[in-house]
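Input (structure):
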């Protein structure tokens, strides 16, 4: 149980730290947020839990393929905000666009015989 609390605390501290740093400098916040900290932490936690290199490999490959559709959020959100839409509405629409892109990417990969 202590291990899970440690995982939650470390992950939470990183997210809060990036948020606070972003208030002072959007560049530094963006650099820290663009580093795949969540992916790295997920791989570290997965390895600590399983010691299974194959699971780490599968996770890494899946993350690689799903980075492309995740970019839809960062394209659609600023476009919607510039059009004057409310932040939360823009965020919800952008998440929907991103989810659709994830779905399409998985379908396209399956078509080419790549399963995630």
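Output (sequence):
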């Amino acid at each position: 149980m202590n291990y899970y609390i440690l995982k939650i605390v470390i992950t939470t501290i990183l997210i809060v730290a990036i948020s606070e740093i972003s208030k002072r400098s959007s560049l530094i916040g963006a650099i820290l947020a663009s580093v795949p900290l969540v992916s790295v932490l997920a791989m570290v936690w997965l390895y600590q839990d399983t010691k299974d290199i194959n699971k780490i490999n599968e996770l890494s490959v899946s993350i690689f393929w799903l980075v492309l559709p995740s970019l839809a959020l960062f394209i659609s959100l600023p476009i919607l905000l510039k059009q004057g839409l409310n932040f939360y509405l823009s965020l919800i629409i952008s998440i929907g666009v991103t989810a659709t892109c994830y779905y399409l990417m998985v379908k396209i990969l399956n078509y080419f015989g790549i399963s995630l």
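Notes: The chain has a mean pLDDT of 91. Residues 1-35 form one domain.
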